[in-house]
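Predicting holo structure, magnesium ion bound.
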Amino acid sequence: MTRDQAPPYEAVVFDCDSTLSCIEGIDELAGGHAEAVSELTRRAMDGEVPLDEVYGRRLEMIRPDRDAVDRVAARYVETLVPGIKEVFEALRAAGKRISIVSGGLLPAVSAVGEALGVDPSEVFAVDLYFDEDGAYAGFEEGSPLARAGGKLDVLEAIAARTREGRIVLVGDGVTDLEALPVISRFIAWGGVVHRDEVHQRSCCSTDGPDARELLPFLLSDAELAGSSWSAPNA
Ligand SMILES: [Mg+2]
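Done. Tokens:
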């Protein structure tokens, strides 16, 4: 059963791929394996196959080196969703603790966190290893975010350190829905990709395309009134 509690929240959590940034990092990395990888990603995000099966398989196909991951980091930042910087500024001004929880690759997702002013300790993603020459040397196989159900574990840990456990999550994929049992509100973000199942299972949703459309779901009226928030031009 999806619960929905109105703001204010203590913590605001965002997915990364197709939520903060308009790309799916793994698809950008895929190169010559683009079609096979993107099909696997779509099946995972649509909930057709469990993430655990897909994760290692995609990376073994691609074997991304350090340069490739750096390029994805730059692409993530170049393709930030319109209005998202203003959203983060408004949330910070309202004193919110902001986290990014992603099944993407930590060295690349960290660049998004940096661009949006998120504390590095609040960026949760799957780490990647390289040898001295920068060649792929494996990924953090023990990361909860590389397996199904992992977003729930990470959101549970975030909930455990908030006073009243009032957390709101913004995301676009089925894996984001895993967190429903421990969050106060889930907002389905369709500004990049609109997935019917995700929208149907959320109490709040918007297709943007400007991320500032999210603010009325994230902040209370009093918090909004005290912020410099302005509605995007229609
Ligand atoms: Mg996503």
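Residues 66-78 form the longest helix (13 residues).
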